[in-house]
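Inverse folding, one chain.
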């Protein structure tokens, strides 16, 4: 089975500016694939190239094994959903969904059946006769999705489709989008700068920075085993510490930290004794305690930020090192410690990962 999309050595230049540097990646059939990165990293450019709205400076683009590099956008079996859903305001919901099917000259009875099927899928059958202005933002976005999926494209491109919605709705729509993708079996290529959204929905994520792909992996691998410091920093929250490698054992690095602390870090990779490395630790792997615990390090809480289900702590180890911890609150809802209090910090085994800069 060929890949759904193959992007091979694609370069995109705007005059002397290179927006994409030799990008290569494969997207599998039936995959929810996300292009994630900060503003300006080139993700929208790559999406527009797949759609055919932008030509490329060099490279090849294949769709299910066929070279489509020179194929105009309207001949690609690809549809796009944009941030602003751009429904036709004068058409009803049903007419909007039928739009692409009419263009395909599908028989009227088939159009009626397909529209009913799509409206049922997005749970808006009862709104078929309404016009877009009579719908909420979330409902409009679902109609835009149904309209784009109705002609059964092989690939659906989604350009930040949730960013115009409020937070609560955005979170609810994540689940709906993922379900829709699984129900239809269409390959989704989703563009976002929101790492939570990417982690929640994707089968795999490509993290991009300055026109280059930094890492392509499943969400959990990206989160737990970031390949570069950029990925570690961009996805989730992270502590970075400079450490010196004192020895290696079973793929782990024994490291010395400022203040005389020692830590064993996983994924030593190419680290060598004597070398200086960055250690990366997720705050949720560091716990704070108000009584002594095994391997607990004495510390003072400098700042706390209450988060409802948890609290973020900025703590200063007795040796002067500052670290961030995220801990669930007590059963009665109180944070474990408050600012200015002394306590103990425990670093979970294998919490630290070695990153070579
Ligand atoms: P955002 O999230 O802000 O949309 P992005 O990651 O999608 O960002 P792109 O829109 O792909 O980024 O742009 C990548 C780079 O290419 C940016 O530096 C942008 O300024 C540049 N660029 C995009 N389109 C053009 C253009 N038509 N002419 C010149 N430069 C462009």
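Residues assigned per position:
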């Amino acid at each position: 089975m060929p890949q759904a999309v193959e992007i091979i050595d694609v370069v995109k230049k705007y005059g002397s500016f290179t927006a994409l540097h030799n990008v290569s990646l494969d997207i599998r059939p039936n995959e929810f694939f996300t292009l994630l990165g900060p503003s300006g990293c080139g993700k929208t450019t790559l999406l527009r190239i797949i759609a055919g709205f932008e030509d490329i400076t060099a490279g090849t683009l294949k769709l299910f094994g066929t070279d489509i590099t020179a194929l105009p956008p309207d001949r690609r079996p690809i549809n796009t959903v944009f941030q602003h859903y751009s429904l036709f305001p004068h058409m009803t919901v049903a007419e909007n969904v039928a739009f692409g099917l009419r263009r395909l000259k599908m028989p009227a009875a088939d159009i009626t059946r397909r529209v009913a099927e799509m409206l049922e899928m997005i749970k808006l059958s009862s709104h078929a006769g309404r016009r877009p202005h009579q719908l909420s933002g979330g409902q409009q976005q679902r109609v835009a999705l149904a309209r784009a999926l109705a002609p059964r494209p092989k690939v659906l491109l989604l350009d930040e489709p949730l960013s115009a919605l409020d937070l609560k709705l955005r979170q609810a729509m994540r689940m709906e989008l993922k379900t829709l993708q699984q129900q239809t079996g269409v390959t989704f290529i989703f563009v976002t700068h929101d790492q939570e959204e990417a982690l929640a929905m994707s089968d795999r994520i490509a993290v991009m920075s300055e026109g280059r792909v930094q890492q392509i992996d499943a969400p959990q691998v990206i989160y737990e085993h970031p390949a570069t410091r950029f990925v570690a920093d961009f996805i989730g929250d992270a502590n970075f510490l400079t450490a010196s490698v004192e020895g290696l054992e079973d793929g782990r690095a024994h490291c010395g930290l400022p203040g005389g602390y020692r830590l064993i870090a996983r994924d030593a990779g190419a680290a060598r004794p004597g070398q200086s490395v960055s250690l990366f630790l997720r705050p949720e792997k560091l716990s704070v305690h108000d009584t002594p615990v095994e391997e607990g390090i004495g510390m003072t809480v400098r700042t706390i930020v209450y988060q409802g289900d948890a609290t973020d702590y900025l703590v200063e180890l007795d040796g002067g090192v500052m670290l961030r911890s995220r801990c669930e609150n007590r059963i009665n809802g109180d944070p474990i410690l408050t600012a200015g209090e002394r306590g103990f910090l425990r670093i979970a085994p294998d919490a630290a990962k070695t990153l070579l800069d």
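The chain has two domains: 5-232, 237-355. Residues 14 and 198 are 28 Å apart (CA to CA).
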